[in-house]
Amino acid sequence: MKKAFDHIGIVTLEPHEGESWIADSQVWVTNPRLHPQRIEYIRPRELPGVSPEQVGLWKLWHWPHVAYRVEDLRAAIVGQDVVLGPFFPAPFLEVAFVHRHGIIVEYMQYRELDHWFGQPNPPGFRHEPLTE
């Protein structure tokens, strides 16, 4: 599977400058392309009441996740423990969250790479190339 690191997502309850609203997920997100370590802050409208027995879903809302850009989202999630998705948070992007090796991994298949929820890429930003 070809993939490239995209960002690290961290759930927070504090507002951050430049947030974008994602109606499907009921969260605000920041643009990781603007953060030097590619951090995305995710602020839920309301933190879901998920039981720790639902391990993957609980981790999704309480632990950081690692996100990878992939060439083929459907192929990336075959045989995986999918905890959310696949879904389109916006027309330019389809995502799925999986519980893998004890952590949450987000796979992202972009249709457009020149912006993040309507925000243009910052000057000098470049995407990592997809590799095996």
Key features?
eight-stranded mixed sheet, 2 helices, two-stranded antiparallel ribbon, 10 strands, 132 residues, 2,3-Dihydroxybiphenyl 1,2-Dioxygenase, domain 1
Task: Describe the SSE topology.
Elements: E1 3-11, E2 20-22, E3 27-29, E4 39-44, H1 55-62, E5 65-70, H2 73-77, E6 81-90, E7 93-100, E8 103-110, E9 115-116, E10 119-120
Parallel strand pairs: 1-4, 5-8
Antiparallel strand pairs: 1-5, 2-3, 3-4, 6-7, 7-8, 9-10
Can you put this structure into words, describing what you see?
By secondary structure, the chain is mostly beta strands. The protein has one domain (3-120): 2,3-Dihydroxybiphenyl 1,2-Dioxygenase, domain 1, CATH 3.10.180.10. The protein is built from 2 helices and 10 strands; from the N terminus they run E-E-E-E-H-E-H-E-E-E-E-E. The protein has helices at residues 55-62, 73-77, and strands spanning 3-11, 20-22, 27-29, 39-44, 65-70, 81-90, 93-100, 103-110, 115-116, 119-120. The protein has an 8-stranded mixed beta sheet with strand order 2-3-4-1-5-8-7-6. It starts with a strand and ends in a 12-residue tail after the last strand.
